[in-house]
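Session log. Operator J.P. requested a structure for one protein chain; no other inputs attached. Running the standard single-chain path with token output.
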Amino acid sequence: MIIRCANEADYNELALMKWEHGAEDDIDYGEHNLDGVNKDEFIEEFVAFLKEHKEYEIIVAEENSIVVSAMFVYLIPKLPKPNGYAKYIAYLTNVYTKKEYRNKGIGTQMMNYIKSNLIEKKCELLFAWPSDNSIAWYQRNGFNGNNEIFECPLCEE
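Structure written below.
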């Protein structure tokens, strides 16, 4: 298993993984991610988004030249302050692993890779909004609910 940063050659595969994840959530949670959506148009839009938004750091796990898991990290620069050490906070989003590769420790390996890289970049905090089914995994990987994050919803997703 190779843990690495994604590159542009991975974008189509990442888009397909996102599509498959949406289909799985539609079945498992009764969501409507794919209702009325054309797969090819979505993949094109997703790839274009990744090409335009280079501020995302995408970490992937690869086995036999196939991406089997992905985690997207968005770095948010902090304003400088006197004697301030931390340069960033980071948002972990869109975490998914192909079904046949789940519960094999891949996510934990990827999280360790991400945390090490963020520490080197002087990142103060990594936050996420886990699904109910993933809370235990996040807790095992050092996340806690002690920090209250206030939200102001602006539109429905």
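Operator note: The chain has four helices and five strands.
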